[in-house]
Each structure stands twice: as structure tokens, then as C-alpha cells.
Amino acid sequence: MRRKISILGATGSIGKSTLDLLGRNPERFSVTSVTAATNVDALSEVARRTGARIAVIADENRLGALRDRLAGSNCRAAAGEGALVEAGTDDSDLVIAAIVGCAGLRPVMAAVDAGKTVALANKEALVTAGALMTDAATTSGATLLPVDSEHNAIFQCLAGNRSEDVSKIILTASGGPFRTSSAATIAAATPEQAVAHPKWSMGAKISVDSATLMNKGLELIEAHYLFGLPSDRLDVVIHPQSVVHSMVEFVDGSILAQLGSPDMRIPIAYALAWPERMATPAERLDLATIARLEFDAPDLDRFPALRLAREALETGGPAPIVLNAANEVAVASFLAGAIRFPDISRLVAEALSHATFDIPHSISDVLEIDRVTRAQTGAMMKASCS
Ligand code: NAD
Ligand code: MG
Q1: Residue of minimum CA distance from atom 16 in ligand 1
Q2: Does ligand 1 have an atom closer than 6 angstroms to the CB of 78?
Q3: In this predicted model, what pLDDT tens digit does every residue of 291-322 receive, in sequence order?
Q4: How far is residue 70's CA from residue 72's CA, in Å, rounded to a whole number?
Q5: Domains of the chain
């Protein structure tokens, strides 16, 4: 029996890496649903290539165009959030959650509520609704398999160990393109420089997050919800080689690490084949050639986003939602050339300091905090950056 896979965010970086692995193992996997934001050409091509039965475009205005492109195929075209939820709850055995941003929250939650096995790349969904999502998984019996390379590494290190024997988790960070840059250079960073990650090839939003170190901040919050440790037992260390993907320290003083080349197909393959493993074409590590593995403390003055994220984690409640929403708006504006690089962290800090929301009790509460924060951040940007 082939394993049936639904891919939310099939046209993105994670989606493509997943499709690469599925294409190499046609006897092992089939594709049920594929989704994308706006690109009907890329989505219809993926749908035809994989033989998916449903293709969902988030932008409802493009449904007609998608239907035209799928004419004569066995794939049904659908659009909008309801259809994304349908793709997340179809008859698949595994849902790949690879939409970027809080936009992925409803379909991911629907998959979790339906008791699915979910390979989670969409970290913003967990950052904004972590407690609701892990509670829902407990209730429904859903399994969350972390795809983010750090969390996948931790998941691998934890296998066969008791959670009460863990003393801390150490997340590694490449340091991004500005690791050694002066504050003045960072202040003048262009979008092209910010997305040019030294080790990983990724979508634009996460690449900017890696440059500000907000990505590591989001990952701290992600680790908290996935593995249940408080902030003071979650460390971050800069590791420029991006070979050690993260580590777990145990009560006896042992540290386990997962190593591999910086290729997302390794963690994605782990989720696809779990609880087994499968072969990947990822480059093998040649440790003698790599020769040195370096580790360094993060500089929170040059990269304030990491400090803001830790504060949001410690504040809890609505704070991670506000952090994420302000960051999504600011990063999109930076990529569009409307604000400068340091404005990203400044806007996030301002949004956090103005926020007066109640603790969210439902996904609707989360999405309302997200909506209001986006509007407020947009207004702050107009006031201070024009
Ligand atoms: P990407 O921008 O390359 O792709 C995003 C996908 O989501 C695309 O298919 C896009 O069409 C879809 N999408 C975007 N906005 C949408 C919306 N409003 N509604 C519905 N669909 C929408 O992003 P990516 O780099 O593949 O990252 C995807 C997720 O995985 C992110 O949360 C990211 O943080 C996480 N992640 C990515 C990597 C990586 O190497 N790329 C590593 C770790 C975690
Ligand atoms: Mg990561």
C-alpha cells in the first residue's frame, strides 16, 4: 500500500523538496491534494505531475484560471480557506504542512483535529496557536512530526529516551548572512542581501527571518510547544557550518546531536518514512573536509529579534501571536522595499509593547489577535517609516 500524502504549500521550497523525494519513490507514495497561494501555473503542473485529485488555490479569484489549466485531468480545482481545510482533512495518511505564515493555521488545525499525522514545517502555525494545537493533538490522537531541521534533529535525539531525563535543548543557528556584519552594515541591508542565506536555500520570508534571527526566536517558541520545556531550558548557539542541526542535553551530562548536510530533504524524508527511514540524495558529510565545527553565543544587540521572541515566549498568552503577526507584516514590507532592515525588529517591539489582548481560547481568538496586530503594525509603519 502506498502512503497517501497531502501537500499544503506544494509550490514552495519545502513543497518542492517534498515532491522531489516523492518523485524518487513512486512505489512508496501517492499524492492526494496539493495547494498554493496564487500561482495557478505551478499548482496545475504539480497536480498533473503527481496525479493529485484535488488542487486548491488560496486566492478565490483564480479558481477559473485553475479550472482551465486542469481541464481534461482527473484533478478537481477548488479555492479559498474552506478548500484548504478540505485538503488538510482529505483521506491522506500524512499531511505536509508547508504553507508559510499564519495563513496555514486553519488547515493545519483542521488536520490536527481530524487526528492526522502532520509533518509540520509551518512554524508560524505552532508559534501562534501552540497550546491549542498540542491540546487538540492530544484529544484527537494526531501525531505532529517536526520538519523544521532543528526540531527534527531534537525529535531524532529524543527517540528512545524518557522526556524526564532531558535537562535542556540546544538549538543551533547558522547566524544568517549578517553573522559577522557590523551594526551599520546590517542597518543598510537590502532584501537581496538578506535573502542570500549562506547555507540553506529557502523561501523569502524565512530567509529574512534567518537574517534577523527572528527565525531562531520563532523556533524557540516552536520548541517550547513541541517538547514542553520552559524558556530557561532552551538554549541557542550560533553554529556557522550548519552541520549540527540541534542537540539535547540529558541529566547525566550527555549531549546527543543530529548531524547532516544542510538539505531539507533529510528532515522531510524522516517525516515521510517515520517511524522508519528512507534513502535521500542529500550530500554525505565529509567531516575531515569540514574539519572544524564552531559554536558561539548569539549577539542580542545586533539581532534584537531573538531577544523579543524569547520575551514573547516568557510572556505567553497573546504575545507570540503579536510577535509573529507584526513580523510577517514587517518582513513583507521590507521585501517590498518599503522599510529598512532594522525597522523589522523595531516594529515588532512596538507592536508587543502596545498589545493589550486577552489570552486566546480558540483559533478564532488567535486569528482575531493576528488580524488586529497586522492592522496596527501597518498603521505604525505608515506613521514612522514614510
Ligand atoms: P515558500 O514561500 O517557498 O512557500 C510557501 C508555500 O505556501 C507556497 O506553496 C505558497 O503558495 C503557499 N502560501 C503562501 N501564502 C499562502 C496563503 N496566504 N495561503 C495559502 N498558501 C500560501 O516557503 P518555504 O520556505 O517553503 O516555507 C514554508 C514553511 O516551512 C514556513 O513556515 C517556513 O518557516 C518553514 N520552513 C521552511 C524551511 C525551508 O528550508 N524552506 C525550513 C524550515 C521551516
Ligand atoms: Mg529551522
Answers
A1: 37
A2: no
A3: 999 999 999 999 999 999 999 999 999 999 99
A4: 6
A5: 3-146 (3.40.50.720), 148-311 (no CATH), 316-386 (1.10.1740.10)
